Amino acid sequence: xxxxxxxxxxxxxxxxxxxxxxxxxxxxxxxxxxxxxxxxxxxxxxxxxxxxxxxxxxxxxxxxxxxxxxxxxxxxxxxxxxxxxxxxxxxxxxxxxxxxxxxxxxxxxxxxxxxxxxxxxxxxxxxxxxxxxxxxxxxxxxxxxxxxxxxxxxxxxxxxxxxxxxxxxxxxxxxxxxxxxxxxxxxxxxxxxxxxxxxxxxxxxxxxxxxxxxxxxxxxxxxxxxxxxxxxxxxxxxxxxxxxxxxxxxxxxxxxxxxxxxxxxxxxxxxxxxxxxxxxxxxxxxxxxxxxxxxxxxxxxxxxxxxxxxxxxxxxxxxxxxxxxxxxxxxxxxxxxxxxxxxxxxxxxxxxxxxxxxxxxxxxxxxxxx
Length: 370
Known about the structure:
By secondary structure, the protein is of the alpha/beta class. Helix content is about 45%, strand content about 10%. An 8-stranded parallel beta sheet has the order 3-10-9-8-7-6-5-4. The chain is globular and about 60 Å long. The relative contact order is 0.20. The model has no long low-confidence stretch (mean pLDDT about 95).
């Protein structure tokens, strides 16, 4: 069984590459331009070291932490990802069940394949709604109202996509959302029956949140009209926690803090937007200094292991999010593959904690003194 062969996120990626159509794999795996942004961030994380500590009793360790005052069983959650069901039938709900088991946030994308109401139900409330502001915002604010009515307590506004980045790998395959199938895609799917046959019987993934609104999502629609006034409107309309995702500039971070945003998610959108963007891992450290020690900072982009997540906590994050590696695990082995990789990530972090003398993830324990 494929799940038994997952010993790292790279194993999940390798197995997913065999099973997924080329178009789908490159959509999930690809980054902007020549993908040097992704490589630059990976190099920054690889260069960051953790100091081993010896002769400390680390026989009992906890991966639990708190998030907006509520306990979570892990210091990492599920980043919002569009069209997750492309990685496997029912992927959205696999992720939702994982979130419920570990009491961690499941980021529900605006372009999820499953209605937001169903996901938060299966996640037993452990879901955050991620919002793209598109066009004049009319449709976006309708989705905000729906999220509020569905019981979402945290809204994540993604701000780093004023225009969709150019990702040559998916462009070469003619990838489009909503999903379109032409002769080229048909051949691709025929060569990958382990993926295409379940999709044939289960139905191709749809933009579920837009079907209920009665209009079609246009992935290429400009999101460039969003500004600080838009943020203020959203802050006024949303009574719960407001997170702004896609921040890489320390001055922007301070302005967001002053505008009443509850937390910032440092992210380069997985290097999928601006190839020349700075490494989010390095930006995290600058932003932490700018906003102070106690302001909530989250991190995603390029995390590949539990040790990576511990590095991000060490560098200033309060919580981290995994993205595409979870889709690879689903593609490789379905629900069992996802559970297997989650256990791997947890073991990697726990072992790294032991080797660096940590028994818990309190700020005072994880972050080095300055």
